[in-house]
Amino acid sequence: MTFPFFMPPGVAFTNGHFTAENIITKVTHSGDLAGIFHDQTAWRAIPSETPIYQVEMLSSAQGEGELYVGTTHLNPGRVGDEFYMTRGHFHQRREQGEVYFGLRGSGLLLLQNEQGEARLEEVSPGSVHIIPGLTAHRLINTGTEVLSALAVWPSIAGHDYAALAQGFALRVVLHDGKIQAKEVQNG
Ligand code: PAN
Ligand code: ZN
């Protein structure tokens, strides 16, 4: 008896693009990110249809025990002095973790626990980031090319954006020509 060999989906490690029959993509534009960047005047000056990041995902099973695989492509740029970043979230199911892999470009992964303690990990091609449960996460592009990171997370994790209405405790800005992380004063 012979068994067929199925062709699985593929990912190009140079840029994070998938080859598969069903790829789901979602673009987040500047206009979707109200209240995220600290310089509201600079944010309003950017056309609302400016694409900031795109997520491409494989279409996969949902439910307890199932996994999602997706790549985030975050454009380079700044709103005022603050580097482009993803909205950032806790998982709705707080205990669920995630793994990010840096593929191209350079940036930072901002992690923050429920006590509001934040830390930054450098993201670069080949970096591996284990995001524990109970930890909010946001990608920040501090480079000059697209930052692409592959992620694997439980399909039941969900996204809780509202829990971060106060924002993260750190902002990453270009100050005196240097990439600097600054503590946010009033949340
Ligand atoms: C990622 C993120 C992706 C976009 O797939 O959803 O980077 O960021 P926001 O969801 O914060 O806009 C992930 O962490 N999934 O759980
Ligand atoms: Zn996540």
Automatic annotation (TrEMBL):
Domain of life from the UniProt record: Bacteria
E.C. no: 5.3.1.9
Domain Glucose-6-phosphate isomerase prokaryote: 29-180
One of the protein's GO biological processes: glycolytic process
GO MF, one example: glucose-6-phosphate isomerase activity
GO cellular component, one term: cytoplasm
Keyword entries, A-Z: Gluconeogenesis, Glycolysis, Isomerase, Metal-binding
One Pfam family it belongs to: GPI
EC primary class: isomerase
Catalytic activity field: alpha-D-glucose 6-phosphate = beta-D-fructose 6-phosphate
Pathway: Carbohydrate degradation; glycolysis; D-glyceraldehyde 3-phosphate and glycerone phosphate from D-glucose: step 2/4
InterPro entries hit by this protein: G6P_isomerase_prok, GPI/OXD, RmlC-like_jellyroll, RmlC_Cupin_sf
Family (UniProt): Belongs to the archaeal-type GPI family.
Name this polypeptide is given: glucose-6-phosphate isomerase
